[in-house]
Design goal:
164 residues, alpha+beta, 5-stranded mixed β-sheet, 4-stranded mixed β-sheet, 2 helices, 9 strands, globular
Length: 164
């Protein structure tokens, strides 16, 4: 038996979310306005379900899902192009937004994209078989122009007395 996981993500209203995903190559495959707003978008093997909540606040959302791919670069470029067409620019702040491609210390090349409902999609391409953290790439995690942190030193510890 094969299993599939499908995220069901909140939004205040469906239309802005559907309008966000269609220029990115997603197709609206289901839409129900009443009595409970619900919609489904699909792009290849990516299926996202959304439900409407009147009092939902997208800027306070913690909703997220991870989409694994074998070509994060191609999806990033496709989504950036679609956003440029839909919004006249590539949004990088506020809602919606798309972040830069990054190589992580845990062997994943990824980018984050947040829709108008505040749902964050982590588009991730594994780049190795070892998911353990490696040292972060040089310069990662520092603000530009910030001084390098002092090396971490640990005071020498005194030996623990042995009990006899």
């Amino acid at each position: 038996m094969g299993e599939t996981t499908v995220p069901i993500l909140p939004c205040r209203t469906l239309q802005p979310v559907l309008d966000f995903y269609t220029p990115l190559g997603f197709e609206v495959t289901f839409e129900q306005r009443r009595p409970n707003p619900y919609a489904v978008v699909q792009r290849g093997g990516i299926h996202l379900h959304f439900f409407g909540m009147k009092d939902y606040e997208p800027t306070a959302s913690y909703s997220t899902c991870c989409i694994r791919t074998d070509d994060a670069d191609a999806l990033h470029e496709t989504f950036r192009s679609g956003l440029r067409v839909a919004y006249g620019r590539v949004p990088v702040r506020g809602l919606p937004r798309i972040g830069p491609l990054k190589d992580t210390s845990y062997g994943v090349r990824q980018f984050l994209m947040t829709d108008p409902g505040g749902n964050c999609l982590r588009i991730a391409q594994p780049t190795g078989d070892d998911p353990r953290h490696r040292p972060a790439p040089r310069g990662t995690g520092r603000r530009r122009g910030a001084p390098s942190p002092a090396p971490c030193t640990t005071p020498p510890s005194s030996p623990t007395p042995r009990r006899t």
